[in-house]
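Incident review: delayed structure delivery

Summary: a single-chain prediction request sat in the queue longer than the usual turnaround. Root cause was a stuck worker, restarted by the on-call engineer. No data loss occurred. The affected request and its eventual output are reproduced below so the record is complete for anyone auditing the incident later.

Affected input:
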Amino acid sequence: MFTGIVEALGQIKAININSDGARVVVASGNLDLADVKLGDSIATNGICLTVVALDASSYSADVSSETLTRTGFAHYKPGTNVNLEKAMLPTTRFGGHMVSGHVDGVAKILNVTTVGNSVEYWVELPQNLKQYVSEKGSITIDGISLTVNAVENERFRLTIVPHTTEQTIISSYQAGHVVNLEVDLIARYIERLLFCKEQEDSSSNSSGVSKELLMQSGFIKG
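Output delivered after worker restart:
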């Protein structure tokens, strides 16, 4: 589990594709690896990776074919800068929001505009993630915990303050840049709970009367 508060900037040193996926080597930059051991998790641009090899200035991790398919790793190459965050501790200050490191999809940056001392980013909103993204809700972009400031049709807006620009790779984003998205964890589980409850209610309702039928007939409102 992570908080979405980036601890350091790293860089991809190598990506070696194999039949099972890939082995990636990441230069850790200023990330303190003193307390990291084999098997620990490090969010790399929001992707939870398990450390399989380690030295004083870098770590290696295996990337599955599933991760290569569903994340921005398909676009990464040696020299690509990445946001880094070690897994949170029970005593960690919770400055962001609950982040699992399991990317839900990728999206493109649509537009970048400077407004005062901040920068506004309009980001593509994939159709299958629309129900999880709401104004003033939380979203994770390349491992950064951010607040959604507006949602319009197939896009949403982020307003980034100077500190975030300085501490993450977001300053390098231009129109067309591909980012990893992780939607709010709570929203995703609430949807699943409601779906299971509806399935349970439907299967136990031998009369054939459902909430949907009552709504269509005008007996109740949604």
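Verification: The CA atoms of residues 36 and 86 lie 8 Å apart.
Action items: add queue-age alerting; document worker restart procedure.
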